[in-house]
Amino acid sequence: MEKWLFMVFFSGITGRLFLINVMTAISYAFILPVMSLFLINGLHASPIFITFYSLGFALSGLFFSQLMGALADKGYPIRQLFMISVMALFLAGLAFSFCQHPIEALLTGMFLMGPGNATIPLLLSMIRKHSLTAGLNATRLNTQMRSGVSIVWIAGPALAFVFADRFGFTFNFLASALLSALTLLASQLLLPKDKKTVDAGKTKVIQAGKVPVTGMIWALGAVMMLANLSNNIYLTIMPLYLVQELKLPASFPGFLLGATAIMEIPVMLVAAHLAEKTGKERLIMIGFCFAAVYYCLLQLATNMTELVVLQLFNGLFFGIFVGLGISVIQDALPERSGFASAFHSNAMRTGMMAGNGMAGLLAQLAGFKITLFVPLLSVCCAALLMLCINRKHAIKKRSVTG
């Protein structure tokens, strides 16, 4: 039975989407991890320029992701929008390989990498649409697709740094451009063409356009933002805390991140099955409890063995959160999957921006160890907000059935 399910997953449109999803993730893995190093060592920019680049790149990604998601909901073929976004990613790789000045990298990040960022929500929207068309479990399909990205990011960033050190940044950028070109070719050959035109889908579009973005949707976005904010503050401060305050080897934080990534993959896949029995919102709250335990015990851990063991809690938290988050928002707004997918990606990106911005300031004012209390506070706020959403949803359901 399991063998049959495995064969079904890696065949047909599902397998093609998985392949393109992984190829897109690899394209990103050759650029994103080394960008700060490229700006400082490759283009000799000042450290503050990293902030300018990160802000410009993130805001551009927010704009283009929401724009293309809205176009998808208006009836424009998602496949064509996705290929336009992949083309932007391809051009970004080429442009970065020719950059000689920091301002050129900033413009490339804003006007090419920004549109390229829309590949993520557009893929999520295609996956959602395929699950509904094929009668597949959308939550399971989302977690299976996300597990492929996690596998790529176990080794991808490490390889990116190795290649940049051995062959130079240009090699990384050209490799990303080549992978994007292959993704573009695979999309052209493998993705099914959307038979619906903008005119043919007018009635459906009008109906979808009337579906409001309720306060609950915004609250769910705030949950995603707060949870990802906590994770990004942790990711930024943890290596510095371990190396500078606990005096652990400089290579250990990378090992710790890899261990967490390995743990979160099976958690994602199991969470999709458990969510059918417990409910996605309740399971995400359980994940937040694991996060709270982890951030508390992190303050007490002093050696490598303790820290490695604690990654079980971190893996449980992030595997549940990242595996189910997109499905929760898509389920809350099923008529506007393009908007919902972009909204989720942008909520996560906003949390990343806020987390990265707060981390340095808080560490400067309070130190690394105290700053690691902030993720605990943030994830507790996310849990309380999710609890309120869950209770309101339960009350509304009882009033309808009663």
End-to-end separation in angstroms reads: 41 Å
Uncertain segments of ≥5 residues (pLDDT<50)?
1-10, 197-206
Task: Describe the main β-sheet briefly.
Answer: none
In CATH, the homologous superfamily of the largest domain goes by the name MFS general substrate transporter like domains
CATH topology of the largest domain: Growth Hormone, Chain: A
Oligomeric state of the chains present here: single chain
Give a short overview.
By secondary structure, the chain is mainly alpha-helical. It folds into 2 domains: 13-209, Growth Hormone, Chain: A (Up-down Bundle), CATH 1.20.1250.20; 215-401, MFS general substrate transporter like domains (Growth Hormone, Chain: A).
Protein described:
- The structure is a single chain.
- The protein is mainly α and 402 residues long.
- The protein folds into two domains: 13-209, Up-down Bundle (Growth Hormone, Chain: A); 215-401, MFS general substrate transporter like domains (Growth Hormone, Chain: A), CATH 1.20.1250.
- The protein contains 17 helices and no strands.
- The longest helix has 31 residues, at 215-245.
- Mean pLDDT is 86; it is low at 1-10 and 197-206.
Question: What key phrases describe this protein's structure?
Answer:
single chain, 402 residues, mainly alpha, Growth Hormone, Chain: A, 17 helices, 0% strand, globular, disordered N terminus
